[in-house]
Amino acid sequence: MLPLFPHEDRERAVKIIERLQSAADEHWEEHDLQRFKYQPYSALLAAMLSPRTKTEDTRAATRELFTLAETPSAMAQLSYEQILAILEKHEITYPEPKAQHLIELSRKLAENNDEVPRTLDEITQYPGVGWKAGLLALWIAYRIAPEICVDVHVARIGKRLGLVNPKTENVQKVSRELMDIVPHELWGVWNPVMVYFGKTRCYPIAPNCNGCPVFDLCERVGVS
To answer: Which domains, from first to last, does the chain contain?
Structure first.
């Protein structure tokens, strides 16, 4: 059976993001990390803390850390115990390694005049900064998107929409499949829009399809 839409349908991807972006942008801008004075550093720090952690907990921990030190040079002077206590207080997952990574990351940035790198290759050389965290930090800090950042929401919804092969598991492969379809200028916004959509309507189980703004554009793969 042929798919409802051709897999290479870029026009459909554009229509999907246009319909979903308004509500997601309003939510994202209201809460994002651009309010911090030293924004690129706060973006990198939050991205490094975020894996397996609720967004609100990551933001709370980042805010409290910045009450003690706003620059990498200042943060590098804090003790491991100070940082660990804040991470544990805000229920950051894997607090011990993340506290150590934060100190090492800050020291390395201090050696680079407190400047956060602007390329994925460079930023992922920093302790605790993997592929996903690096892409997230680059987008929040600089609005740079060399690839599409993929998390569980982006992967699940991409498959449900019929834009990604349902059998693709590796997140970087999911990213490549999406990048074959999604125009380059939309790579950066794709993650925050799909994360918001996944949290508010397109749930893993029993998605709220009734009244969905992209119902007519979705293949609903795996939805009974």
So the answer is: 10-30+148-217 (1.10.1670.10), 33-142 (1.10.340.30)
